[in-house]
């Protein structure tokens, strides 16, 4: 589970401890689904009372919409999931047993929908895999075991063993949640690079260090490498290829390397992931037509769409750096995108051709 700062973490631990004592379940028995739900509701209520929810219906609706879309494809779709934004200006999020997911306002302000979907999918993974509940069961079991074996002398050793167990399980849990979150974004129709984009954005904030959303978890580089492995195994295309001097997309014989013109607010690699993921979504359509790319003005910015899929946004700031207008810069990408669509269309029709009869 994503960690809070010390004061908030202590509050959550206190709630869990009190609830575990109140339920008084035998250690040998697993918490039931109803127990999970009840624990999550009570801790969620305590969090909301302490830190308050964001009083912006649009912000809450955004997170709720993303969460509901993802949860419908989870391995436990019948849980009473809730998705809410806490009024805390930190880049963070957390999942509680039984369904509640809390995203901090700082994270919502920091990420676009695809990146945010990756984080929410990761949190749903923690709930689906019952990570918090399993940790509670193990902690209570170890406490009783050490007291039985060593009495009071077991307390110091118990503390050391518990810390080691929690650290090991945290890494295992994060890997499991990453994998489930990636699968969710893919099934739900989000950019397949969503979680990778979100992870790289978080790595920017952390500076590669263990703090905030990376506290007690594997290094960002480890998780990023793992996510790239998921993407490669899923055969997502176009592929994003980076080296010391350039970023480009490759899909068969087609390449796109015009990202130098997209300098400015976000790193070039993130634009590449955004574009690659959008084109992958286009490639899943039943029919691909090169003439379906259009420009749509959004204030001073211009967006490129294919049918109902937003491909890329070109800002006025980027256009100014390139010495042109947003419409002209966005329009300059269209021929290359049409070239890609034509290639995909040819591949579609080739696949759909009936096998030729054998020559008699």
UniProtKB/TrEMBL annotation:
This is Peptidase M48-like protein. Its cofactor is Zn(2+). Keywords: Hydrolase, Metal-binding, Metalloprotease, Protease, Zinc. The keyword rRNA-binding does not apply. The keyword Zinc applies. Residues 59-229 form the Peptidase M48 domain. Gene3D superfamilies: Metalloproteases ('zincins'), catalytic domain. GO terms for molecular function: metal ion binding; metalloendopeptidase activity. It comes from the Bacteria. Binds 1 zinc ion per subunit. GO terms for cellular component: membrane. Belongs to the peptidase M48 family. GO terms for biological process: proteolysis involved in protein catabolic process. InterPro entries: Mito/Outer_Membr_Metalloprot (IPR051156), Peptidase_M48 (IPR001915).
């Amino acid at each position: 589970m994503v960690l809070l700062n010390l004061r908030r973490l202590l509050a959550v631990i206190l709630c869990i401890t009190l609830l575990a004592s109140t339920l008084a379940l035998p250690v040998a028995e697993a918490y039931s689904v109803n127990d999970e739900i009840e624990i999550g509701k009570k801790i969620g209520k305590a969090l909301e009372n302490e830190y308050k929810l964001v009083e912006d219906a649009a912000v809450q609706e955004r997170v709720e919409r993303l969460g509901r879309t993802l949860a419908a494809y989870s391995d436990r779709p019948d849980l009473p999931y809730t998705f809410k934004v806490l009024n805390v200006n930190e880049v963070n999020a957390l999942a509680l047993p039984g369904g509640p997911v809390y995203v901090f306002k700082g994270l919502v302000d920091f990420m676009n929908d695809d990146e945010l979907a990756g984080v929410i999918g990761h949190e749903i993974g923690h709930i689906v895999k019952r990570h918090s509940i399993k940790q509670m069961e193990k902690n209570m079991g170890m406490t009783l075991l050490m007291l039985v074996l060593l009495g009071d002398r077991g307390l110091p050793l118990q503390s050391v063993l518990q810390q080691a167990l929690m650290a090991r399980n945290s890494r295992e849990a994060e890997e499991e949640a990453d994998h489930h979150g990636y699968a969710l974004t893919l099934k739900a129709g989000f950019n397949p690079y969503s979680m990778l984009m979100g992870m790289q954005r978080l790595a920017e904030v952390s500076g590669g260090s263990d703090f905030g959303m990376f506290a007690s978890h594997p290094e960002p580089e480890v998780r990023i490498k793992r996510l790239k492995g998921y993407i490669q195994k899923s055969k997502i295309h176009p592929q994003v290829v980076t080296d010391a001097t350039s970023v480009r997309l490759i899909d068969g014989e087609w390449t796109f390397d015009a990202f130098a013109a997209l300098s400015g607010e976000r790193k070039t690699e993130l634009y590449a992931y955004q574009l690659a993921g959008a084109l992958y979504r286009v490639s899943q359509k039943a029919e691909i037509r090169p003439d379906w790319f259009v420009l749509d003005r959004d204030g001073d910015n211009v967006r490129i769409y294919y049918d109902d899929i937003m491909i890329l946004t070109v800002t006025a700031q980027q256009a100014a750096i390139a010495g042109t207008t947003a419409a002209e810069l966005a329009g300059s990408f269209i021929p290359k995108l049409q070239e890609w669509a034509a290639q995909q269309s040819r591949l579609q029709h080739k696949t759909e051709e009936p096998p030729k009869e054998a020559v008699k």
